[in-house]
Amino acid sequence: MEDLVKMCRVCMGESEELLDIYDNKSFGDGLTAELKKTKEPEPTPADLMQSCSSVPVSSGDCFPLKICEPCLKKLRDALLFKKRYARNVECLGRVKSEKKDQETCDLLEAEDWSLVDRIKDEDEEGDENDLQPAAKKAKQQEEKPRPFKCPDCPKSFTGKAQLTMHSRTHSKGKPKRRSIK
């Protein structure tokens, strides 16, 4: 049992200068600087062992209660690495999410959503009947292509959403057919 008092819990090396695993001493290293930024308390070596491994640490487990400085430094570096990695994964997740959001916005912007333009287009279609055939042809060449054509009438639209809305005007007046049983 006396050998355990002089043994490092991590490397099992013997030394006269060992630190208690429940003492939270500041070392002024990278981890200390990181903890000051986030206003977290200095962890004890026992806390470091617990967070960097899956092995539980308790005072009554009959294992050495001391750690050597080289092992403590490695534990502190490991925790700093773990924190940095977690922060970077979180940042990359936000970037990935923002990219998906931007792609969705780009798709929505590509669609013609302007209600004013739709009303204006419908008004112009009504006015086109009044124009001479040559003027009508010139006006059609200036306009955007209208690939979405209505199957019920001669109208065409620049967006599928516009055609869908227009199609509803044809179905309003028609009675629904009922099947006879």
UniProtKB/TrEMBL annotation:
Residue ranges under compositional bias (Basic residues)? 167-181
Q: Which residues bind Zn(2+)?
A: 8, 11, 68, 71
Q: Where is region (Disordered) located?
A: 118-181
Gene symbol of the encoding locus: LOC108012408
* GO function terms (MF aspect): zinc ion binding
Which SUPFAM superfamilies has this protein been placed in? Answer: beta-beta-alpha zinc fingers (SSF57667), Glucocorticoid receptor-like (DNA-binding domain) (SSF57716)
**SMART domains in the record:** zf-AD, ZnF_C2H2
C2H2-type domain residues: 148-175
Could you read off the lineage of the organism from its UniProt record? Eukaryota, Metazoa, Ecdysozoa, Arthropoda, Hexapoda
Know the name of this protein?
Zinc finger protein Paris
Keyword set, alphabetical order? Metal-binding, Zinc, Zinc-finger
